[in-house]
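Continuing the batch. This is chain 6 of the set; chains 1 through 5 are on the previous pages. Same settings as before, nothing changed between runs. Recording input and output for traceability.
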Amino acid sequence: MTLTYKPRLGLALSGGGARGIAHIGVLKALEHANIQIDYLAGTSMGGLISAVYAAGLTPAEIESIALEYRQARKLLKLADPTIPRQGLFHGKQMHVFFEKHLQDYKFSDLRIPLTLVAVDLNSKKEVHLNEGSVADAVRATVSVPGVFAPIEHDGQRLVDGGILNNLPVDIVRQMGADIVLAVDINSTNGEASFWQLLGQKRFISSTIGGSIAVLGDSLELLMHQNTVCKLQQFPPDFLLQPSIPKGVTILTGFDRAADLIEEGVVVTQPILSDLEKALRPRFKWRRSKHA
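Output for chain 6:
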């Protein structure tokens, strides 16, 4: 006998700070094509966008928020500088922002199964967050080391999952996805990195600016190489790599939100036809007990 089986689609969204706004355009293109996402996995900015989408916000609503916060005065409201002990920012105001848009959602409340990636500095292991408070999990996955203070919880010190798994293709596959679409927004176009720009700031350039640039660039290099290895080990069925406009880094370029979103739409359109074909219902043969 035969059974009709519809392949399940998993979407893996990478970290990359402001560059991750391009993920919104990918979601817009998928929605316009009526392509349903069955599983989501995200790291850092990819984790934030996948979380609000899984919670029920439409791509248009997420786009509206991104465009609102492209203004510097809005972004500054999320900044809470601290004496740099564990990070440049506490991250408390950012957590308030997450709670506003995710309310008191638990992972069990989400309309799409979701896993976020963080790293525990104590155990030195990758952590998959898929239970409890979604806002807390988002705060953990976006905690770029040195920029935001880690989240300390239950004996763990959680930071940005991009250190070990910036593009969680393997995770969304483990969740049950038959077809995986991965979006990697970690391109830099050879420009000065956020860390180099930070090191050039007047108040630190004459002291530890050079050290910050070297350490930060080394971290990004390790993350990039780790992603390359992960993609070889766990290749997705479809891989998108949007072109990132000049001046967009981890924490700079939010004012280019409209361009980033449009690039996400543009880079997704060429694969839609093949993706739709891959997701068509299939006939699965199953042997009868009496055969």
